[in-house]
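Researcher: Last one for today. Full complex below.
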Amino acid sequence: MRLSIYNTLKRKKEIFEPLNPPHVGMYVCGPTVYGDAHLGHARSALTFDLVFRYLKFLGYKVRYVRNITDVGHLENDADEGEDKIAKKARLEQLEPMEIVKYFTDRYHANMDALNIQHPSIEPTASGHIIEQIEMVKTIFDKGYAYEAEGSVYFDVDKYSQDYDYGKLSGRKVEELLENTRELAGQEEKKNSFDFALWKKADERHIMQWKSPWSKGFPGWHMECSAMSKKYLGETFDIHGGGMDLLFPHHESEIAQSNAAQGKDAVRYWMHNNMITVNGQKMGKSLNNFITLNEFFSGKHEALQQAYSPMTIRFFLLQAHYRSTLDFSNEALQAAEKGMNKLFAAYDLIEKLPDTKSSSVDIAKYRDLCLKAMSDDFNSPVLIAHLFDLVKVINQVNDKKETLSKDDIVTLKQIFDDFLITILGIKSEKSTDNTQVVDYLMQTILDIRQNAKTNKDWATADKIRNDLNKLNIQVKDTKDGASWSFR
Amino acid sequence: MRLSIYNTLKRKKEIFEPLNPPHVGMYVCGPTVYGDAHLGHARSALTFDLVFRYLKFLGYKVRYVRNITDVGHLENDADEGEDKIAKKARLEQLEPMEIVKYFTDRYHANMDALNIQHPSIEPTASGHIIEQIEMVKTIFDKGYAYEAEGSVYFDVDKYSQDYDYGKLSGRKVEELLENTRELAGQEEKKNSFDFALWKKADERHIMQWKSPWSKGFPGWHMECSAMSKKYLGETFDIHGGGMDLLFPHHESEIAQSNAAQGKDAVRYWMHNNMITVNGQKMGKSLNNFITLNEFFSGKHEALQQAYSPMTIRFFLLQAHYRSTLDFSNEALQAAEKGMNKLFAAYDLIEKLPDTKSSSVDIAKYRDLCLKAMSDDFNSPVLIAHLFDLVKVINQVNDKKETLSKDDIVTLKQIFDDFLITILGIKSEKSTDNTQVVDYLMQTILDIRQNAKTNKDWATADKIRNDLNKLNIQVKDTKDGASWSFR
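Model: Here's the assembly. Have a good evening.
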């Protein structure tokens, strides 16, 4: 069973064959850290967490690079407007890197809550200015860029004479010309569809570095080309990101790499689809987003309750990454219920009665699960198979079907591999038992009271001694007994 | 009451007067991320966490910069040997930045466990190569550096004709000359006490950048001078670090700043003292260290038990930051006990009976706590005052002393401010009660067994009903009763 991946560039599924097996290089576009992560950010990170986990499960050694954009991302994609982080810093009267640190930490905390594994390397744009300048120089020297007023622009027209510009997004240069409107400050460019490789900073711009052209900062698309090359080499296996990055960001990356090195950098392009709210993309720019912290706390007018990180994770995994996924309270509540059902069955496995022979073909399910994941990481089909196994578990528990000892072990292994390791769902119930302890203590204190009333000193003494060992102190008051840890 | 800080440079306590109140700029040397953090790292981070917290409590707006050293720190301080991270990467067959990411994440997790607040900015050496090269250029242009074989060295002899080299550490150039031995590769230097600003990389060195002198990497001392200047300005308030960094690291920083800008950068130098093991410094190079993860798990031959992060925190705070602190199991166990005592009293405050008037002067204690902290952050004296208040609380609880309602509120506020906000100690008891639940359930199941034996059906029924409500299932087997959550 071989892994197939839908390659956006080819518009079809292809058998995955890494360049240097067992090594796999994967680069994924991370967040621009000027606000809290919302459900859309979670979907992208989770999609490639699933890819990362499954590739490792298949035995590959994956170097997974996910960047942090901390400079160069302007307010609109046409190289105009203010730097998103610098603007936030100006509004909050902070140093841009204070904004970066604050939101990077919050992003990490969110990702940890969602049980998303850390990438192998997490480079920042501002930490790789030298590498970006070097690559701009190369593109410039090869004739695919021009300087205007201290800024450097990519010459799309020139490039498209030698290479296929638009091959990822399907856009044509002629159409782009018709469809782009003139924006303020665009006059430096030869054509409105050219994009910035280096921008001269105006005086008040608080992030700028020296370059051969001006004091300024790199264009947004530059960082990914420069950093993927540095850490994964000129050619690498997988480049991932949200579908909203396909154009212009990824199309520009392809142009930059070809212009600089005469060949493509990426072998498999993968794009996750969007979260929608009433059919419209959830996004920061549309201001219809719900942050992950709001989901976790339930504090947002569109939310009927709090949703735990694992509920969010399971909800996202119930859709294939290339489908859109519409947010609703009903769907989240259904996900919560479904996940609890899976865990209840999972807990039951070790208690199942075993018999000499099995009435169910368990090994078949293992193959089905592998087949689902190997078919372009089809997590909803995988989850459907796991729910079929829930039925089997309940039937065996009710003695309507039978399983041998070996098959019960296999069954447990299927859940361990696919639910825990690959889907990355973990049980949330044992994290905080404060309420359970309160409740059990109440039971014990009630029994103690009864024992005292009944002059059952043996029981009363036993309770006192046991609680003593736990450093629990009981105080008798007029209103009954209270307790506390010593 | 004004804050006084022991300034290592002046060898005395000074009244703290920030340059631009209410703003305070503070720079602290963070870890070189090629191994797990040990108790010594915790002490440094915690010392300046205490400073950070107290300055904010006093109303200052603090920009706290703590760096991550991810390149340039060689195996010995005489500019020889391999880069610590590159060596680890070579041994593990990983990209250096994979090592950096792995140990940075683990460092952050340890700091979070210790309830150490995040710095405002956490810059990396590799992310500030441009800024470092610029500063080397300036020093070079001012005549305090020379080039040799593509490397650039600081000319200590030349510098000491114009400035007071050794003013922080008290070392004299003449003595340094007598005491330093010749090391392999030192022949490039004019004098053995000169230090590298830029090192030419040999071919196999995996981290290198272009510079006017060679492809290479910055000297270790350079990053702190360049990054503190970038984020805090030419002159800033506080520079902190472990006492082991005083020479050559901080002495070199002072020389670099003076050479580059003709004046000192730092106004108050603060140094925390070392952790000792049987009187010897605990350190990675001496190989006598115990990592924080080992303390938390108890898995180290020198440890008699696991110690919680808050026990470690309280243990460290019980000593003044400028005193050495000897590690021992007894001292840690005493800290654990003391901390529990503080929390028991803290929990009791809200339950204290109030009377019309107070027999104890509570306001006085607030002043005493402030005085302790304002006297160079004297946490052990502060803790002694809190223990005096524990006595008061217990006496009021036993009705031997009295407190008015207002004074009880003040008492609570003192604990909230000084124990929780400033010392940063938090209650650990509700984080994971799994063991407590197990233990309480055993007590309940024992009682149930006795009740059954004694045909006390009322008790047995009550237990069954109570556990049912908690979704706890009890199974009777030959070996006794077992239980599980449903």
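Chain B is about 45% helix and 15% strand. The two ends of chain B are 59 Å apart (CA to CA).
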